[in-house]
Amino acid sequence: MKKTKFLSLLLLGMVSIFLVACSESSEGGEKNVAQSEEIKVMKFASINTSDRSITLAMNKFAEQVAKETNGQIKVEVFPDSQLGGERDNFEGLQLGSLQASIISTAVSSSFSPNLSILDLPFLFKDHQTAYNVLDGEIGKRLLSEMKDQGVIGINFWENGYRHLTNNIREVRTPDDLKGLKIRTMESPIHLDVWKELGVQPTPMAFPELFTALQQGTVDGQENPFVVTATNKFYEVQDYLTVTQHVYGANIFLVSDKFWQTLSEEEKEIILKAGEDAKNYQREIEQQQAAEFLGLLKENGMKITELTDSEQQQFREKVQPIYEKYSKELGEELVGELLKAVE
After folding, report:
1. How many CA atoms lie within 13 A of 98 on its CB side?
2. Which stretches does DSSP call E strand in 204-298?
3. Which DSSP state fits 192?
4. CA–CA separation, 145 vs 105, rounded Å?
């Protein structure tokens, strides 16, 4: 009897030890899985120079994501067109070979046409009006439409107001533009605007622009002060007219293929970091715009400020653009946008 009881206790003890060992082994296995989880690499590309506000914000985004994910998402930033032009980057997002990029609305509209509404000339009277529209219902609707193209629209960053430069003559009125060959964005609406103004528009990828200006392939270009300064276009351009003809917005895009690999928690981290980076970038962009206008003056460019009556001549000249795109994009959408900016 005692022997039987002893054997029962011994067997019970052995079972207990076995169960504890299995439990510890299981927990250890779970820890090993967590520790060996593959790090997700997020290649983040832009055509902007390394000292531009957009690149500074991309770096800020990268740091925040690494911190919030404990290094499980590694964001690698590629500025200076290292991974190609904007169209190359957009197609990379669609293929999944690129995970994120900052791309202009002008180029993005080639894939999602309704975005071209944001490139209507002389649309936003000031920065805050632009922010209200881009961060509001219209902006959210336009971003949501991009999923059909295999990309996730996170938010809108600022590229700044676009202004005209050329190397032929001072421009004060639309008549001064006649015959000039101007590099434009690869966007139907941009081409139409400049044709309406009497220019010979020449679309080309941004990385090719400096050489084209240097060799006289084109006479001029149009970009924000910061882009003109950081790319040293003042070395091959003499005249700058403060036209403020288009407010340039850039879109923070993420590949849908990459997005689908993220957990819900990781998606929230990306969205939060993207919002913080957007606000930071807009603030720095306005500071840089003022600083780089001064730099352009220092480097010998003749800066022409238009009077109200001179700018009105440009506005009147491009009114047919509103009529054309109201028909193409829908009078309801254009009407809603114009109501929002007013």
Report:
1. 28
2. 220-223, 239-255
3. H
4. 13
Q: Which helix (H) or strand (E) holds 259?
A: helix 256-259
Which amino acid is present at 172? R
Least-confidence region, from 27-41, 137-151, 188-202: 27-41
Which domains does the chain possess? 39-341 (3.40.190.170)
Could you report the per-residue pLDDT of 156-211, keeping only the tens digit for each? 999 999 999 999 999 999 999 999 999 998 788 999 999 999 999 999 988 899 99
Compute the distance between CA of residue 306 and CA of residue 163 in angstroms, rounded to an integer.
11
CA dist list (Å): 107 to 6, 28, 203, 247: 82, 51, 11, 14
pTM of the model: 0.81
Nearest to 182 by CA among 171, 193, 170, 194: 194
Within a 10 A sphere around the Cβ of 267, how many other Cβ atoms? 14
Closest CA to 113 of 90, 86, 135, 145: 145
Q: What pLDDT is attached to residue 166?
A: 98
Residues forming beta bridges with residue 76, ordered by sequence position: 43
